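In this notebook, the sequence line spells out the residues, with the fold written below as integer tokens. This is how one looks.
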Amino acid sequence: MKRQFTASISKEAEWYIAQCLEVDVASQGESKQEALKNLKEALELHFEPPTADLAPLIESIEVDISAA
């Protein structure tokens, strides 16, 4: 079964960090492509039976940030 996920990619020092937005899984690499490849592998391992559960439900919440 294939499923689509969304990745956020950022650069921290010399590394690219790829983080899945739907599941708490992240990885890194020396390039964007390597970080995404490593994230894909990490997600496949995350969902390998029997330890992984279904992805959590994602909900939006509103926060008043001017009150801080």
About this structure: The CA atoms of residues 24 and 32 lie 19 Å apart. Strands lie at 7-12, 15-20, 26-29. Residues 1-51 form one domain. Helices lie at 32-46.
